[in-house]
């Protein structure tokens, strides 16, 4: 019999630097924008390192979960995809698994896509694996090596020890401009309170005929509005989404303060969970034929809408959004309403006319103080009102596609991101700027939502 002492060894922490990961591009943030950027860069042949403080791929799309993909489609009676690049692959993969449901929102006058977050996570993981992306989850960026106008490396703390990622270019897809902030670069914060949401996924919901989902949703949302005060709910204008194929309801019926403070954030997060439980009690008691036997599948991470963003070469303004300005360096188009969650009880909701489109310029992605840092998703440079329209998942994917193409052009020419010809980026992302791209391609039907 082998001696047990030979099966162990004694170790002690040393001051020796941790491992170093070499990459062409380091992407900080593995949400929908960071994952998109990493996939696109890998497909261009680059070595990509993807790091996220969360322990899962997909960020808020999976861990909150947001539950609905908004901002992908045009506004009007016959919505088409505004951002088909990569998005069509994701939607097709979800459809093959019967894990998504197109819902026409009369309130937004466009399509949203309700999805199963576990299936979405596996799709993202498989795409990253196919590109041989180096993934570091549960990793927090603690320092950035800034050399003049270039970031040379970032230090990451993980449960396994310290790690340094050295790269030629960096993508800040953190949602909070965490990389720019850590590097000591200028950032913007809103001067108003902007609330997040404690989401909830319910299983065992009797959705009924998919054709009746609009009536079910309208009745449930009406109950939240009319009976919420009696159950102690703070938010009155809640939103509920159904995924009939999975007998799932996704509740977006709370408002949670999401300060950039580690203690206060979770204090408010726990308050949000209590609000969700009150909403569930309301629905079970007031709408038992649909929610009476439902149970909680997931109370995810509190959802964050808007916190900190970069100081870019251009701050997108709400006036430019309302006017539909098409910038010379436009790289994405959007039709989602202004959706600013600036009060505890409700939010500002300003939909656009049918056919309206507004654009995001490449300059809003480029940090003014760095040559090799580009932002994607909800930390691009925009005022709070403009950002409330372009921070949803469709534009997040579109800005990530453009960021990847900009980096690819810069790396092959060994130049600053600021020197990249915007026209060449536009050529590569052309489907995201022009044309009507139907989805599903067979013209499949969608449910009519509230």
From TrEMBL:
This is FAD dependent oxidoreductase. The keyword Iron applies. InterPro entries: FAD/NAD-bd_sf (IPR036188), HdrA-like (IPR039650). Residues 429-450 are annotated as: Disordered. Transmembrane segments: none annotated. One of its GO terms (molecular function) is 4 iron, 4 sulfur cluster binding. Keywords: 4Fe-4S, Iron, Iron-sulfur, Metal-binding, Oxidoreductase.
């Amino acid at each position: 019999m082998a001696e047990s002492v030979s099966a162990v060894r004694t170790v002690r922490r040393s001051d020796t630097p941790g491992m170093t990961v070499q990459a062409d591009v380091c992407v900080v943030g593995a949400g929908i924008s960071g994952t998109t950027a990493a996939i696109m860069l890998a497909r261009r042949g680059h070595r990509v390192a993807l790091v996220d403080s969360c322990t899962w791929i997909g960020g808020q799309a999976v861990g909150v979960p947001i539950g609905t993909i908004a901002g992908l489609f045009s506004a009007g009676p016959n919505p088409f995809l505004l951002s088909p690049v990569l998005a069509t692959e994701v939607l097709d993969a979800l459809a093959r698994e019967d894990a998504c449901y197109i819902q026409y929102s009369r309130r937004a006058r466009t399509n949203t896509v309700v999805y199963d977050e576990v299936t979405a996570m596996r799709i993202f993981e498989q795409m990253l694996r196919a590109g041989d992306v180096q993934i570091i989850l549960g990793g927090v960026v603690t320092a950035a090596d800034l050399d003049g106008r270039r970031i040379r490396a970032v230090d990451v703390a993980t449960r396994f020890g310290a790690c340094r990622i050295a790269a030629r270019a960096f993508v800040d897809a953190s949602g909070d401009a965490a990389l720019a902030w850590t590097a000591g670069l200028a950032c913007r914060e809103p001067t108003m309170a902007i609330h997040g949401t404690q989401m909830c996924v319910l299983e065992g919901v009797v959705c009924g005929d998919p054709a009746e989902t609009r009536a079910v949703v309208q009745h449930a949302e009406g109950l939240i509005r009319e009976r919420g005060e009696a159950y102690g709910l703070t938010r009155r204008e809640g939103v509920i989404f159904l995924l009939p194929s999975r007998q799932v309801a996704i509740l977006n019926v709370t408002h949670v303060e999401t300060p950039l403070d580690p203690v206060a954030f979770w204090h408010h997060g726990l308050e949000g969970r209590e609000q969700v439980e009150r909403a569930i009690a309301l629905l079970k008691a007031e709408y038992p034929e649909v929610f009476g036997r439902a149970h909680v599948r997931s109370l995810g991470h509190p959802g964050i809408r808007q916190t900190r963003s970069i100081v870019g070469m251009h701050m997108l303004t709400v006036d430019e959004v309302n006017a539909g300005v098409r910038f010379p360096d436009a790289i994405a188009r959007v039709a989602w309403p202004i959706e600013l969650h600036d009060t505890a009880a409700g939010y500002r909701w300003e939909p656009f006319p049918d056919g309206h489109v507004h654009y995001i310029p490449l300059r809003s992605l480029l940090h003014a103080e760095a040559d090799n840092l580009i932002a994607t998703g909800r930390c691009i440079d925009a005022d709070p009102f403009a950002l409330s329209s372009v921070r949803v998942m469709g534009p997040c994917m579109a800005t990530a596609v453009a960021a990847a193409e900009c980096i690819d052009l810069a790396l092959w020419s060994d130049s600053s991101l600021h020197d990249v010809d915007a026209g060449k980026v536009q050529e590569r992302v052309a489907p995201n700027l022009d044309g009507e791209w139907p989805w599903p391609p067979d013209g499949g039907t969608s449910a009519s939502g509230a």
